[in-house]
Specification:
This protein has one domain: Alpha-Beta Barrel (TIM Barrel). Helix content is about 45%, strand content about 15%. It is built from 13 helices and 12 strands. The strands form 2 sheets. Strands 1, 2, 3, 4, 5, 8, 9, 10, 11 and 12 form a 10-stranded parallel β-sheet that branches. A two-stranded antiparallel ribbon has the order 6-7. Strand 8, helix 6 and strand 9 form a beta-alpha-beta unit. Helix 3 packs across helix 5 and helix 6 crosses helix 7. The N and C termini lie close together (about 5 Å). The mean pLDDT is about 95.
Length: about 350
């Protein structure tokens, strides 16, 4: 599979939180986000990703993901467009099918359906979405929702009688440009029901940030699930979401990390304890996020040569699509340096 690089577009600001995606972005503003999206396309990035949450980071301020994807379809011409863990519990699945088909049409066939069951209880409760504490129930709902969406993509009309959802003679027209449907992405490997869904439905499996040992363990679980369901493991694309701090020198890296520490002391970012617990659950090998050494176990921090070596290790594990959060954003220095010094070298090497 071709090696592809995606830019995770910050649609929330989380200053000072080195462990969660946007530690230098002090206040949510659309202008730097739009500029970064356009530049990422000019620089040759392959895909754009936006998070799907109701609130995150500083003051909870966050752009709504679906609306942002529609805007990005008009701002760009070439890059693939995807939500990150599109939450089944936030939108009725037949409506998602209509929205996804529409976005695929207006973007010229550039949509990726990255689907998930949702995990952050505070969001469900705050907005009145039904919450199931049992993860298996949430996954059951997600699987039924995904089956409805795929049926609506591929059938003239869809009738579906499930445990959680009922659909009668539902129409989805126009159909997506991509046939038989936009690629399905599913993520993580800690729940057997999710692994089963990946083997049965997904074209791509995604991992959240993790250390190399944790990634090896996840891939082993994924391989076992594929074997159990008769799925050829090699036909499943592997994607890795991670944070990147890339600078020309170690001194520059140290300056960025010091800035993050200053922001952490200066700005009240509220409670992100549930996020921290969730991230640790996806990578039990990581104990804390307080030092560069610990951050480097899970994320990619270094000079161009150091970063190239780390990504080559990911390629050696079988990952070919990378979802990148640049920790220095809203600066675009890391975005540019990665495109200039890292992407060409990795694309020239066999995956």
């Amino acid at each position: 599979m071709a090696v592809r690089f995606g830019f995770c577009l910050p649609i929330f600001a989380n200053p000072g939180m080195a462990f969660f995606r946007t530690p230098c972005f002090q206040r949510l503003e659309w202008a730097p986000i739009a500029r970064a999206a356009r530049e990422a396309e000019r620089l040759g990035y392959d895909s754009l990703f936006v998070a799907d949450h109701m609130f995150l980071g500083r003051d909870g301020a966050m752009l709504e993901g679906w609306t942002t994807l529609a805007a990005l379809a008009g701002l760009t011409r070439r890059m693939l467009l995807a939500p990150i863990h599109l939450c089944n519990g936030f939108r009725h699945p037949p409506l998602v099918a209509r929205m996804a088909a529409t976005l695929d049409v207006i973007s010229g066939g550039r949509f990726l359906l990255f689907y998930d069951s949702g995990w952050r209880e505070a969001e469900f409760c705050a907005y009145g979405f039904p919450w199931d504490a049992d993860v298996n129930l949430r996954l059951e709902r997600m699987i039924e929702g995904l089956e409805i969406i795929l049926n609506m993509f591929t059938q003239e009309r869809t009738t579906y009688h499930g445990k959680h959802y009922q659909v009668e003679d539902a129409l989805c027209a126009p159909k997506p440009v991509q046939q038989p449907h936009p690629p399905v992405w599913l993520g993580e490997a800690k729940d057997e029901l999710m692994l089963s869904a990946v083997a049965r439905y997904a074209q791509c499996w995604n991992s959240m940030p993790a250390s190399l040992p944790a990634l090896e363990a996840k891939l082993a679980a994924l391989r076992r699930a594929c074997e159990q369901h008769g799925r050829d493991y090699a036909t499943l694309e592997k994607s890795l979401e991670t944070q990147v701090l890339l600078c020309e020198s170690d001194k520059q890296i140290a300056r960025v990390l010091k800035r993050i520490q200053r922001l952490k002391k200066k700005i009240d970012v509220g409670s992100d304890q549930d996020i921290l617990e969730f991230l640790r659950a996806t990578n039990p090998h990581l104990e804390d996020y307080d030092t560069r050494e610990k951050l480097s176990e899970e994320f990619v921090i270094g000079t161009p040569e150091q970063v190239r070596r780390r990504f080559q290790a990911y390629l050696d594990l079988g990952f070919t699509h990378f979802m990148l959060w640049f920790m220095d954003f809203p600066s675009r220095a890391g975005l540019r340096l990665f495109a200039r010094e890292v992407m060409p070298a990795l694309r020239s090497r066999p995956a």
